[in-house]
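[step 3/7] inverse_fold.run input=structure_tokens len=525
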């Protein structure tokens, strides 16, 4: 099977993540123009319930499968890996079917009692077929990650995004004459079609890869002698799978329930502030459907690092190689900071032109500008949480996330219900949550492995970001550039990025040695 190194796996996931994030902005830009902010709000209000159900089913199972498969592959036991896969599939599919039925029968009650807008019912019904599909595909992704082959997951996610975008926009446009509620439901149906396509790609790749591996294994064993290692029985595999998956699932459930409660309490708090249901839905749709995705776009590297860190740190921990553990963590944190900082500066300085160009709506710009300076905490949070999971401390990550969730929900209830704050009260709560959870994760990592954070990296990054922001602002407002406003925005951003990269090289944040780790530069040098 095609196995990649830590850097190669990260780069593959990074490339796929960048492509998916860029593709993802097509519906983010087009969907509001088709269904409007209110339609986006209906779509976003139904989505948290899907996230909760999927987290219950698949929260920790892919990670557990990846960990167990990696151990089996390290002992050269591919049949054991496939036995682990079958056990995970049986568990996930059973849970998927169960919760699909639960979602179907509870759709009316959820949309009429828990949420403030009963039109979410059609979106809720449209999402139910995805539950079992995602349950199966997540298991296959965990299997491929365990074999340290990131290509199948990357390819399936890209194809899923392309198919999803096409059908999401097409279905919403077809159903728009029936009303906004049906158009939002059509968008959710398009997501379902994309998930089916992604699963098909995973199944095809698994079939061809396993067929090839079995042929190679047969040729290898024909010339060898010796007894095979005894295979673990299904009950043992299931018990171990649950032992790893349950704590991770609990931690992710806190985040998912926090997201769910956030959508419910934000809508009700805005109603207490005197905002109508339709306006509250539109504001929440702007926040979760437009601002947050834009803010999380640079976090694609952090997500890729988090996925690759788990097997890498687990392997180093098994060897008791503390130097390698510290090195990997420092690399991940530095990359997350250095790559995220310039985009945070761009989103802060150019919030208005960004929102106008992407969404045709400058009203969301104040939300983006308010959140942009604190985006760095989000970018660092994912690698820190991956460290805790890799070092067998998912319970610590769970407690940290739970504390942040309680603080966030409390602040939303207090601030968003006040007319002078409204939706900005919810934004304040989200900012406090991101800062608090990141600091708690960092403190937990320091206590766990006696890690010393390099404050010089943070100070250099902040200095480069501030100088970049000042330079972009000057070019945009003072340097005459002929042409459209988007061209002025683009030139100013490029100039700012050039200044930022120059400072990074001068201060040592980025070095030639870092570039040598990239396959393209390595081949050219």
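[step 3/7] decode complete -> sequence:
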């Amino acid at each position: 099977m095609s196995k990649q190194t830590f850097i190669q796996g990260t780069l593959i996931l990074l490339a796929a993540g960048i492509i998916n994030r860029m593709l993802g902005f097509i519906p983010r830009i087009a969907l509001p123009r088709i269904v409007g902010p209110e339609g986006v709000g209906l779509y976003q209000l139904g989505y948290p319930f899907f996230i909760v159900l999927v987290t219950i089913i698949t929260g920790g199972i892919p990670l557990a499968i990846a960990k167990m498969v990696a151990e089996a592959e390290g002992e050269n036991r591919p049949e054991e890996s496939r036995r682990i896969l079958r056990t995970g599939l049986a568990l996930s599919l059973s849970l998927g079917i169960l919760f699909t039925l639960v979602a179907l029968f509870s759709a009316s009650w959820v949309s009429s009692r828990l949420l403030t807008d009963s039109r979410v019912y059609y979106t809720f019904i449209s999402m139910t077929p995805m539950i079992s599909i995602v349950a199966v595909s997540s298991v296959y992704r965990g299997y491929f990650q365990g074999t340290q082959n990131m290509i199948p997951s990357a390819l399936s996610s890209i194809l899923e995004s392309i198919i999803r975008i096409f059908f999401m926009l097409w279905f919403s446009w077809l159903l728009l004459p029936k009303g906004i509620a049906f158009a939002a439901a059509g968008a959710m149906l398009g997501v379902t079609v994309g998930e089916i396509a992604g699963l098909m790609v995973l199944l095809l790749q698994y079939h061809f890869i396993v067929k090839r591996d079995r042929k190679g294994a047969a040729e290898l064993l024909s010339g060898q002698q010796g007894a095979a290692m005894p295979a673990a029985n299904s009950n043992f595999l299931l018990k171990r799978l649950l032992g790893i998956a349950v704590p991770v699932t609990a931690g992710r459930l806190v985040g998912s329930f926090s997201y769910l409660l956030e959508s419910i309490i934000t809508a009700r708090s805005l109603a207490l502030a005197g905002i109508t249901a339709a306006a509250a839905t539109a504001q929440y749709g702007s926040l979760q459907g437009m601002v947050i995705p834009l803010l999380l776009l640079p976090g694609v590297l952090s997500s890729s690092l988090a996925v690759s860190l788990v097997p890498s740190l687990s392997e180093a921990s098994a060897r008791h190689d503390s130097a390698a553990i510290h090195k990997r963590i420092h690399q991940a944190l530095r990359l997350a900071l250095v790559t995220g900082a310039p985009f945070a500066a761009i989103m802060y300085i150019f919030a208005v032109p960004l929102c106008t160009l992407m969404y045709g709506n400058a009203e969301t710009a104040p939300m983006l500008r308010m959140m942009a300076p604190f985006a760095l905490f989000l970018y660092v949070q994912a690698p820190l949480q991956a460290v805790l999971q890799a070092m067998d401390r998912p319970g610590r990550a769970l407690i940290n996330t739970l504390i942040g969730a309680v603080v966030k929900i409390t602040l939303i209830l207090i601030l968003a219900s006040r007319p002078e704050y409204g939706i900005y009260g919810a934004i304040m709560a989200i900012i406090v949550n991101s800062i608090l959870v990141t600091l708690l994760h960092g403190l937990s990592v320091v206590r766990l492995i006696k890690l010393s954070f390099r404050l010089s990296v943070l100070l250099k990054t902040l200095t480069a970001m501030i100088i970049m922001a000042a330079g972009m602002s000057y070019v945009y407002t003072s340097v005459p550039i002929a042409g459209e406003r988007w061209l002025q925005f683009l030139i100013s951003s490029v100039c700012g990025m050039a200044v930022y990269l120059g400072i990074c090289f001068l201060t040592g944040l980025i070095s030639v040695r870092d570039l040598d780790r990239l396959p393209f530069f390595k081949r050219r040098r």
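[step 4/7] annotate
The chain is about 85% helix and 0% strand.
The first helix runs from residue 6 to 58.
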